[in-house]
UniProtKB/TrEMBL annotation:
The keyword Ubl conjugation does not apply. The lineage of its organism: Bacteria, Pseudomonadati, Pseudomonadota, Gammaproteobacteria, Alteromonadales. It comes from Paraglaciecola psychrophila 170. This is DnaJ domain-containing protein. Residues 2-66 form the J domain. InterPro entries: DjlA_DnaK_co-chaperone, DnaJ_domain, J_dom_sf. Gene3D superfamilies: DnaJ domain.
Amino acid sequence: MDHFELLGVTRTSTTTEIKKAYRKLANQFHPDRNDAAEAKEKFQLIQKAYDIISDPQKRSLYIKSNYTIITDPREIADSFWHNALL
């Protein structure tokens, strides 16, 4: 799952918006406040997502590694067929 989707924010969200979304979800799924079986696991996922996208350097690397912008679809097709025919 995408870290931005998990926290309910967009890629262009500010640090303050990310922190606010994290705190809301952390309070909701914190194991001390939520007795559900999946609460602990969900809380850990929320923490990991926040750790990555709250730090500007980690966020930049995450965006670069997980979001590919295709400028020309023919490049992808040409690459696919080139590799398939070798």
